Amino acid sequence: MRILITGGCGFIGCHTIKEALDRDDIERLVNLDALTYSGNPENLSETNDERYRFIHGSINDTETLTSVLIEERIQIILHLAAESHVDRSIDSVQPFIETNIDGTRTILEAILNCMKEGLEIHLVHVSTDEVYGSLGPNDPAFTEDTPLDPRNPYAVTKASSDMMVQAFVNTHGISAATTRCSNNYGPNQFPEKLIPLMTLNAMEGRSLPVYGDGMQIRDWIHVRDHARGILATMDGLLDGRLDSGEVVNFGADNEMPNIDIVRTIIRLTGASESQIEYVTDRPGHDRRYAMGFEKAERILGWKPEIDWSNGMKDTVEWYRSNPEWVESVRSGAYREWIEKHYG
Ligand SMILES: NC(=O)c1ccc[n+]([C@@H]2O[C@H](COP(=O)([O-])OP(=O)(O)OC[C@H]3O[C@@H](n4cnc5c(N)ncnc54)[C@H](O)[C@@H]3O)[C@@H](O)[C@H]2O)c1
């Protein structure tokens, strides 16, 4: 199999690459990443595999994308590149429209152009549970049939990209499956997101800013379980267990309010409850997400394997034992390195 992954230097991308390179049936793995603020080549510094190639470039660049697809004889694209932080989308939605919507459009058109040349390129489009909207306390979990109801700018751009993929499946007959996963945690996550932010603040004796009442519930899944799910979806699409146009949800049956997460981190780091500081809630903050993943179990034979307490223990330990990574991400040192090496 010859794979192109987009956004492979990000949090989920780097774990997906490591999972994929553990497999013998992967002949080539090309990573196209624009190295935005959250893309860090250090996440793959130990990846020393001759099947792997990194290309610094944007999914919005049609020429680069098309030439990589043809030159590398790519058979399947795992599309993860995105602007991914809800708070940033509230400050400015423009980069989200450019990357998440227009970038996905560029990928779809590149696939279409290759189809016209007689090449078949499949697509796994990586999306999110946020496209389904918000649940009440007693509502059943989201299923793949739950209508889309995105409620923040990030979620709207992801839902738009999902619908664009669907349109190209229906209209142009491309082969694509979409994954929707709940909140990920694990090593290598950029420290603007809840778990790394709280872990680092807790370890450094700083305040732990909790939005609103801290009762926003998410279904937390370990990033390696999600990465396995993305690869399982790829397998399902290629061997016909999934039809083109299908959606698969991934979750971990691990619903938890934010405040409980903060308390878990306090316990694991030896921090103090007095560090908790309640701050004004994010506008339009969805109250609850929960994912039904029966389809992934039934059709793909996938299930989450990493339980929350072990996963969190390892995650906190990873941030504790990788101060250089944390320092370089925070200080922007790796951005200087990128500037020097990639211009
Ligand atoms: N983090 C989660 O909890 C979560 C949950 C479900 C789905 N997702 C989805 O998974 C995907 C990956 O999320 P993540 O948390 O790893 O994000 P991330 O922000 O850590 O990584 C995004 C990566 O995309 C790259 N990128 C951005 N714009 C690009 C462009 N124009 N061209 C090429 N590369 C570009 C960045 O450099 C970065 O490496 C996203 O599509 C996101 O919507 C994330």
Q: What does the radius of gyration come to?
A: 19 Å
The largest sheet, given as strand count, sense and whether it forms a barrel, is: 7 strands, parallel
**What is the residue-averaged pLDDT?**
95
The CA-CA distance between the termini, in Å, is 32 Å
* CATH fold description: Rossmann fold
Shape field: globular
Task: Set down the secondary structure blueprint.
Elements lengths: L1 E5 L4 H11 L6 E6 L18 E5 L5 H10 L4 E4 L6 H6 L2 H23 L5 E7 L24 H20 L3 E6 L2 E2 L8 H10 L4 E4 L5 E3 L1 E2 H17 L7 E4 L4 E3 H12 L6 E4 L14 H7 L7 H14 L1 H9 L1 H10 L1
Parallel strand pairs: 1-2, 1-4, 2-3, 4-5, 5-6, 6-11, 7-10, 8-13
Antiparallel strand pairs: 9-12
Helix pairs in contact: 1-7, 2-4, 4-5, 6-8
The structure holds nicotinamide-adenine-dinucleotide.
